[in-house]
């Protein structure tokens, strides 16, 4: 009899661009292991490999498209069991957008909107009259890295505006 099925992920948090292993374990004599993603048979891609008689599902590098519910079905002629793991890949911030008018009149209200795709959700902060940072800062995006972009509105608001978003870890 098979019991105690589990899917154990790598100890590290799934972050875009990093490898992740999902290991399907059970107690008892296991004859077959079958993986599913979001209630459909898993079709391995160039980026994912099944090994050790389908016990280990390896993602060479995960991305947000790998998000979903992974189920490992274990069976033998006497019994079967299964376990699931919900993969949430941390990524971004990406596709940073700053929206606002190209021109405004002095003393008009200026509305700017900043958005980005990210998991977990990015936090946004707005600062006024902040000097430009050193060129050592990058616009790279991994957990905990600050992303910056600049908007100069000197005529309209009397100074430069700078916003940054910081990904929560």
TrEMBL record:
Residues 16-90, 93-129 form the Ig-like domain. SUPFAM superfamilies: Immunoglobulin (SSF48726). Keywords: Disulfide bond, Glycoprotein, Immunoglobulin domain, Membrane, Signal, Transmembrane, Transmembrane helix. PROSITE patterns: IG_LIKE. It comes from the Eukaryota. InterPro entries: Ig-like_dom, Ig-like_dom_sf, Ig-like_fold, Ig_sub, Ig_sub2, IgSF_CEA-related. The chain crosses the membrane at residues 137-164. The keyword Glycoprotein applies. This is Carcinoembryonic antigen-related cell adhesion molecule 1-like. It comes from Pundamilia nyererei.
């Amino acid at each position: 009899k098979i019991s105690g099925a589990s899917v154990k992920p790598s100890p590290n948090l799934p972050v875009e661009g990093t490898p992740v292993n999902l290991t399907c374990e059970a107690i008892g004599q296991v004859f077959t292991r079958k993986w599913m993603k979001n209630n459909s048979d898993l079709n391995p891609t160039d980026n994912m490999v099944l090994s050790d008689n389908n016990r280990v599902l390896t993602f060479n590098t995960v991305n947000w498209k790998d998000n979903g519910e992974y189920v490992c079905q274990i069976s033998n002629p006497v019994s079967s069991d299964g376990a699931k793991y919900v993969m949430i890949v941390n990524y971004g911030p990406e596709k940073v957008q700053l929206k606002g008018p190209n021109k405004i009149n002095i003393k008009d209200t200026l509305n700017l909107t900043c958005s980005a795709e990210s998991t977990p959700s990015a936090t946004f902060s707005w600062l006024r009259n902040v000097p430009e940072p050193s060129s050592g800062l990058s616009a790279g995006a991994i957990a905990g890295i600050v992303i910056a972009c600049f908007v100069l509105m000197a005529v309209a608001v009397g100074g430069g505006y700078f916003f940054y978003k910081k990904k929560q870890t």
